[in-house]
Amino acid sequence: MKKIVLFDLDGTLTDSSEGIINSVCYMLKKKGLAIPDEATLHSFIGPPLTDTLKQLYDLKEAEADKAVQIYREYYAEQGIKQLSVYDGIEEVLASLAPDYYLAIATSKPEFYAEQIIANTGLSKYFSGIFGADLAGIRSNKTDVIAYALAQLEETPAVMIGDRKFDIIGAKANQIKSIGVLYGFGERNEMIEAQADRIVATVDELSVAIRQSF
């Protein structure tokens, strides 16, 4: 059976910062909440939105859920289109697809992830797209990875991602991980999360993935 390579989406396959940050700012303005500095805005990329809202604004569950709905007003119409595929990613996927099962494991709602992969023309490379559910029950990366592995009939697997949540989720599911530095995370974050490998550029991905098994 082919081995499984799981990719995070935001910050790993696509630079989605513009669409996410614009959606966050739209939501914060409508909620009357202060818009933070750029570094803090970037912290919204990666983890479940409700978690970040609770942490930064001390929102209760119900209020955070309402804020997410406002976020999606903008994201569904405009933010979802405000992204680009990182240079070299399609070449990496094309080189790996004959030998591995490639799949997406993202904390983004699965419905949006499917649209993004279709819009970017990358669907042909993936055996599955696995994400959060719109209700937020399956939202953290550990749960998403477990869900993906269950659907793919777990074999040796590796998780590729740009944030500590990807690495932590991989460890919780007892699979290897590769942290990438061209996205939204930093080297110290990857080291502290104990990524099995760290790569700085897209060009290093193919070799790192093949050497992980």
Automatic annotation (TrEMBL):
Gene Ontology terms for molecular function: protein tyrosine kinase activity
InterPro entries: HAD-like_hydrolase_sf, HAD-like_sf, HAD-SF_hydro_IA, HAD_2, HAD_sf, PGP-like_dom2
GO cellular component, one term: cytosol
Domain of life, source organism: Bacteria
Chain segments annotated as transmembrane: none
Gene3D superfamilies registered for this protein in UniProt: HAD superfamily/HAD-like (3.40.50.1000), Putative phosphatase, domain 2 (1.10.150.240)
SUPFAM superfamilies (alphabetical): HAD-like (SSF56784)
Name of the molecule in the record: HAD hydrolase, family IA
